[in-house]
Amino acid sequence: MAGEGDDVKLLGTVVSPFAVRVRMALHLKGVSYEDLEQDVFDKGDLLLASNPVRKKVPVLLHAGRPVCESLVIVEYVDEVWAGAAPLLPADPHGRAVARFWAAYVDDKVVTAMLGILRATTDEERAERLDAALAAVRPLEDAFAECSGGKAFFAGDSVGYLDLALGCHLLWFEALREMFGVMIIDAGRTPRLAAWAGRFLETETAKKAASPIKSIVEYAGKLRAIWAAIAAAAN
Ligand SMILES: N[C@@H](CCC(=O)N[C@@H](CS)C(=O)NCC(=O)O)C(=O)O
Known about the structure:
This is Glutathione S-transferase. One of its GO terms (biological process) is glutathione metabolic process. The protein is of the alpha+beta class. It folds into 2 domains: 8-80, Glutaredoxin (3-Layer(aba) Sandwich), CATH 3.40.30; 92-215, Glutathione S-transferase Yfyf (Class Pi), Chain A, domain 2. 60% of the residues lie in helices and 7% in strands. It contains 10 helices and 4 strands, in the order βαβαββαααααααα. The chain has helices at residues 17-29, 45-50, 70-80, 92-118, 122-147, 160-166, 169-179, 190-200, 203-208, 212-233; strands at 8-12, 34-37, 59-62, 65-68. The chain has a 4-stranded mixed beta sheet with strand order 2-1-3-4, covered by helices on one side. Helix 1 links the parallel strand 1 and strand 2. Helix 1 runs antiparallel to helix 6 (160-166) and helix 7 packs across helix 10 (212-233). The longest helix is centred in the middle third of the chain and has 27 residues, at 92-118. It is globular and about 55 Å long. The termini are far apart. The chain binds glutathione. Residues 16, 18, 40, 55-58, 69-71, 106 line the site of glutathione.
C-alpha cells in the first residue's frame, strides 16, 4: 500500500466538496495523509503561503511542496501514486473526455448549484433550479458514453470523473434538505441517479463524506454573509 513514509498533508475543510474530491483520491490510492482543517473565513498563514494566488482550499502539501486546485491535485495524486487504482483512463482520448466533463462539472454544474443557494426568493430559486437541471442533463449522455454500460464513469470502479462529480453529491443532498430541490433525480436523469446511489455506497465516498448537517450550517453561513453584503450595498 502506498503512503508509508510519504509526507502528505491536506489543507481543506470538512465541508469543501473540492477537498472531499482530493480525500477520495488519496483514499483510493491508499495514501496516508494528515488533514489540516482550515478556516476559510479567517485564513491562516500556511494556506495563504501555500496558495497565494487563489487563497483557496484544497491544497496538497507533498514533502512540503504545495499543489493547488482540486482537479490538478487529483491528477498529481494519480501520477505520483501510479501503481494503485488508476484514476484517469489509459487512452489519451478517454483522458481528454474525462477532463472535459470534469471541467464542465466545476464550471456549469457548480455555478448552477451556487445559484440555487444564492437565490433570495422562491421564484428565483425555481429559475436557478431549472438552470441546474439544464446543466446536469448532458451528463446523463456523458455517463452512457464514458461508462460503456458499466457501473461508474470510469467503468467497473470509481475514477477521475466519478470523483469530479461525486464530490458534489452531498451538497446536492444538503440543498434538498434546505429547499426541497432535487438536482439529480430518477425521473429526469435515471442513469445519473442510479450512478449517484452506487457512488455514495462506495467505501471511498463514505470515508470522505462531509456530514450533511455541517454542510447545511456552512451553507447557511454563506447565505448570511451574502445577505449582509447585499444589504450594505443598498
Ligand atoms: N477550483 C477550486 C475551487 C476551490 C474552492 O472554491 N474552495 C473554497 C471552499 S469549497 C474556498 O477555499 N473558499 C474560500 C474563498 O473563496 O475565499 C478547486 O477545485 O480547488
